[in-house]
Amino acid sequence: MPTPIQILIGFLRDLFRSRLSMQMEILALRHQPAIYQRTCRRPRIHSADRLLWSWLSRCWSGWRDTLVFVQPATVLAWRRRRFRDHWRRLSQSGTPGRPSTSKEVRALIRRISFANPLWGSPQIVGELRKIGIDLAQSTVERYMVRRRKPPSPTWQAFLKNHVQEIVAADFFVVPTVRNQVLFCSSFSPTNGAGWFTST
Predict the structure, then answer these.
(1) Which of 94, 103, 119, 159 could make a disulfide contact with 123, Cβ separation 3.0–4.6 Å?
(2) CA distance 6 to 30
(3) Nearest 5°: CA angle at 137, between 133 and 138?
(4) For the CA atoms of the chain, what is the radius of gyration?
(5) Are the beta carbons of 58 and 80 closer than 8 angstroms?
(6) Domain edges within the chain
(7) Sheet holding 181-189: strands in order across?
């Protein structure tokens, strides 16, 4: 039960408050009993309730003092969820990814790359921009004509073709009976003939 002094202090405080702040507090205080009247034990909170308190927390600085049925952190979580859902709807409204390339443009890329075999994707991108077609370099590379490269020879074919020019060499040391060390080198071509030198 408030004392007369507390009532007087509250009355003097209300005299100096702005009319908008008082209206916000009246709205907040009227809204919470309405929530309790809808349910018996635990208040059932609807989306309109969350929207109202999210708006009050943005517009009114004294919303924490009148909040009873939930914690202030819960209202802040509602605000963050609304912000996240809003931007998720905006980001998912359009078609994901890059816009598709038309068949005419794809055929044009193939024709340009086939007619100019030495051109890479940067040159084709520049030529397309001259006629008003702006594409990424990766898109142009996807639709360019792929030319077959001659197969590279295997290691076995390389050895077979260069068997006359291949020389095997080795370098090693040989200790002698008199505790001397001989530095030896050995060269041997793969055609069968060989020689040995040592120093």
Answers:
(1) 119
(2) 22
(3) 120
(4) 43
(5) no
(6) 4-91, 103-143, 159-198
(7) 167-175, 181-189, 195-198
DSSP 18: -
- First and final C-alpha spacing in the chain: 115
| Nearest-angstrom CA–CA distance, 190 and 165 | 8
For residue 60, pLDDT beyond 60: yes
Residues 100-119 have pLDDT tens digits of 788 888 899 899 888 888 88
Residue written as tokens 């794809």?
Answer: 106
More confident residue, 122 or 33: 122
Q: Residue 92 carries which DSSP code? A: T
Q: Where are the alpha helices (DSSP H) in 60-154?
A: 63-66, 72-91, 103-115, 121-130, 137-143
The pLDDT value recorded for residue 12 is 62
- The 8-class DSSP code of residue 183 comes to E
Alpha carbons 8 and 30: distance in angstroms, whole number: 23
